[in-house]
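User:
Care to share a sequence and structure tokens?

Assistant:
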Amino acid sequence: MKQPQNTAKKHESETGISWPGGARCAVMISFDPDGETLFRSGPKGADWAWPRSRSIGRYGPHRGLHRILEMLDRKQVPATFFVTALTAANYPEVFKEIHSAGHEIGHHGYNHELFNSYTREEQKEIIEKSQDVFDCLTGQTAKGFRTPSGDFSFDTPELLLEMGFSYSSSMRGDDRPYRTMIHDKPSDLIEIPAKWELDDYPQFGYNFYPADPVGQDRIMSNRAVLENWRMEFEGYYRYGLCYVIMLHPQLSGMPGRLAMVEELIDTMQSYPDVWFASGSEIADWWRTQTKGED
């Protein structure tokens, strides 16, 4: 397949920082394997009430993840998987496969909880419970955190730092990493922002009942989404930024959409000075370069 020509005109880097090896921009490919936790809420006391809906989430670890791992191996690019710990517990062999392939495991709650609806102590219990699952399965705990389904509480960043996390990838307010402000001071917790535009869920996420989205008006053309993602990459490359794409195995693990993701990676790999890195690698690099000040 003929790849698009590299026509992006370089401007002065907006990061003010050189990426490793003189790379022009950084790319973080990330996946959120939610499994059945995505549709966990049925009638009160009946978590199992939506078997067809829950099967959408099951498609990810049951089918999509294997294709994704095979594709990443062929393209020789690293990825970061923000996994709900219940999914890891329910599919331990798949989870171990992610780890053994050399990809990073990040924290995504235990059961896809809304962290802003929990107290600080409850959040701590969720994190510890999840880390126990990760440690049991791989001998390692997560260093990165992505809040499930929305916002974390205002005290979550300080809690993450206290619990030994290196970075979060939860916010939207920049296209560069930055040090999270805690008590009005820049901290060692690095935020690696993502964007809804670079998330496959707003493009493809759909369920008839319960309705998601409520208006039932979403399932985008693969070709149109690919073009959007390509153009965003060219913009990030032009200004020397950090391109973070968020994908869900139950969506982008489908055959046609995975071909779309592979085509996007082909485009990015056609640029000679792109740094493909895990969340931890990006956070560690940014922390050493900024030295406490962004």
User: Anything to note?
Assistant: The mean pLDDT is 90. The longest helix spans residues 51-75.
